[in-house]
Amino acid sequence: MPKRSATVLQLILALSCAPAGPRNVQPMPGAEPPKWGSAAWHDYLIRQMDSLRSRDPVADAKSAVARRDFHLLALSGYALNVPGLEREWPKYPHQIYVFRATSDALEGEDHMRYTGIAYDYAKAYNAYVLGQLPRNGH
Fold first, then answer.
1. 3-state SS assignment for residue 72
2. 130: closest CA among 89, 102, 99, 100?
3. Which of 8, 57, 130, 133 could bridge 125 with an S-S bond, Cβ 3.0-4.6 Å?
4. Which domain, by its residues, includes 29?
């Protein structure tokens, strides 16, 4: 094989093994939501809203930080929305969990409300965690 072809092949193989995106971004642990836009999906959104409304994001963040867990929360969309980090999120060294069923392509009134509640929760949670990071960020 000519040297040039071998170099191109090596480059293709190296790029195909590279990660597709940051490895620290994952969906929020939990069950996969029902099919987007279905009646079950809308019920899922309502349950998620009720759950978030019953939680205290700062208390939850304090509990996580006490365990030295500095993960942040995010919402899906055209671009990942990590309240408090904006465009700096790819540099964040800790886990980022994305709320399931969030999007900037909203599917009705309950989806809009859920996304707003998830954003407010993430904003308060992340603000506390970011304020508690060790000086070196690790």
1. strand
2. 89
3. 57
4. 22-132
